[in-house]
Structure prediction request, 466 residues.
Amino acid sequence: MSGSIRSLTFFLFPTCCSIVTKNSGCGDRIKVEMKVYIRTMMNWGDRKMKTNRWITLLSVALLFALLMTSTSCAKKVSGEDLMKGIDSQEVQVPEGYSEEDLQAALSFSLHLFQKSLEEKNTLMSPVSILSAMGMTGNGALENTRTQMEEVFGMKMEDLNNLLYLYRKSLPDKEKLKIHVANSIWFKEGGAIDVEEEFLQTNANYYDASIYRAPFDEATLKDINLWVKEKTKEMIPEILDEIPEDAVMYLINALAFEGEWQDIYSEDQIQDGVFKNGSGEEETVEMMRNEESLYLENENTVGFMKPYAEGEYVFVALLPKDENQTIGEYVNSLTGEDLYELLSTVESTSVLTMMPKFKTEYKVELSEVFKSMGIKDAFDADLANLRALGTSPIGNLYISRVLHKTFIDVNERGTKAGAVTAVEVVAESAGPMEPKIVHLDRPFAYMIVDRQSNLPLFVGTTESVNP
Prediction:
């Protein structure tokens, strides 16, 4: 076989295999077929051929045809993507964050977390929840919209601006990646007439993909496939069924992958004891280090541990009173106090100890939102979502707000994912001594970016080995 054919073959093989593996649901089978093909070509060439440009062209053509054939195995969303008719338009937003809106968003995040807190490991993503509810709020009118704005602490226009700026500032670097995706799915066949302005607004501010689908078993698989992909497989699904009366889903998915700026070495990881919320001692892997960002107020001690580049930090908060439960501590916090605490970081030596831990959490938030003051949106008779659309079946209202989260904190960094789905149905039915913060008892934590202090995630660890 000629040198040119051999060179071309060995160049194309790894390239094609890489593309197939990334984009095909049957990459392994295609790899095998390509290997068989190349082995056959080489054996034949060694016996029969010298340099021949026609064989070179044939080799390229066959490899390309094989690669194209592989796409038939790829898993793709089968819903009709309507973004072809709706392009994101440039929007006029403020150049920077409004401090008033940031404080409001932090207060909302804390209030939501307090209302959802359970006597077990709890983890929520306020950014994910705000994004899904924000998209929904763009379809609300009159008292339904007013209630949502009062709970969010800002007008819908301001929330759109805030989340647009936040999304545009997300890092996508080798050691720190945050991916946020939004999508809107609505039922085909005339079950709902969606307002184009509603879709356009969410395309503009949330970069939402829009799908029309039959809402059958195939759609269930498609939605879960979308969630799995956008959360980097940290959350494999959000829905276990699509109810008969469901006509729309508004979904946010996000994935956080951050490496510590200062990775823990092996000699900094030792067995330790964590006294859980029930008073029992758990043997855990403790990570020890000297940090430099210390937090303290009347009721709290804590620290910040930066991720790569220093833009995002892990915030650990420990109640000073060892007899106070983590639930009592979290419920004693106010948005104003928390904002001030995060804004007044002391640069000093702080000796820290933190367990490796993982948490998976899921919750349905409709009752939580009702208790916070968003009532009409969940009421079949009172909801006014006519800016979203209308249905010949009956009035549109929110049935469920599904939320799932995952976090893994270890010596290298943190991986975390979240998804929120709003289900809309049609009515039928310094030189001082070092500070010491040891997280050897229940603690609260957040992942925030230091510019906005907006919590990407907020959680509590009652137990490391639940």
Notes: The longest strand covers residues 281-296. Residues 322 and 441 are 8 Å apart (CA to CA).
